Amino acid sequence: MSKSKTSALIFPSNRTKKRRIKHKQIRTFINWLPEYVEQLGKMSDAQLAKIIKCSDVSVRVKRIKFGIAAYRPASDTYEWEQWALELIGTMTDKALAKMLGVHTGVVFRRRKRLKIPAFTPKYNFKWTTNTIAMLGTMSDSQLASKLRLSAVVVRKMRSELGIRPFRKQPEYKRSAHVWTKDEIELLGTQPDSAIAKRLGTHKVTVAQKRRSLSIASYRGYQETIQWTPELLSMLGKFTDKEIQNRTGVSKTRLCAKRKELGIASYTSLHQVNWTPELDAKLGTISDRAVAELAGCTINTVRNRRIRLKIDRFTPKNTLL
User: Fold this and answer.
1) Is residue 263 a part of any domain in this protein?
2) Domain end residue (candidates: 65, 81, 109)
3) pTM of the model
4) Taking residues 129-144, what's their average pLDDT?
């Protein structure tokens, strides 16, 4: 132990002395008057501690020393008479508690202990065929307000009859729309909502049909694209994304124009129907020659040859 701590224990300061004296007075010097002793168990330990100006522990220790039970509110120690027990379940717990002058929890605990079901008000309402037919056609709360009943009563009657609850159907239902040539020509010339309103269908149906035909959506602010020979020559030779980056034309417009002209996409050049005749020529002639015969790129031929483990064609030197 350090010198400072030992000196503090041997020579305490005035502040420490006062604290020790105050703590000793709280622990030992409690003047238990007969009035205070009589109040033990008649009020909570915390309330009595505030009156005596001591801790709750001191009051609890004194009460246990005298063998006095802890204080409980009068509502918890209510003595139930026979007439009061007969009223449980015939009215709500709140109404019975108000009649007996106790807390609602006292009635609730006694009812649970006696296994008595809670009171449910009975309505003098006669369910006719018309009112039963309304069950499930609208929400329980809407029907309850219409019949001036509780929603619980409506839900209970519906569940007893095995009727499913009302579910609001979505406003939009997909319907098979038969498209004519004149209607297809309208796609892309006007907004989808305007065309849908004109045809009497939903705008989602119009949008799905337009996308299936690769028709760009209507943009009133966009200028018409000038399809120059240079732009048309790029179709199929490059990917639509590369052309879009170079010219600024959207991929949807490029794809639609390419399909209109019957030009295959750039990616389709890599998809070759390899026949046994083409496979037999791999390695016997150059990859460039095979690519010209197959109508694909040289890399496609090279990858096919490597996959089949065929050596590259090397022309033989005929010179002696």
Assistant:
1) no
2) 65
3) 0.25
4) 89
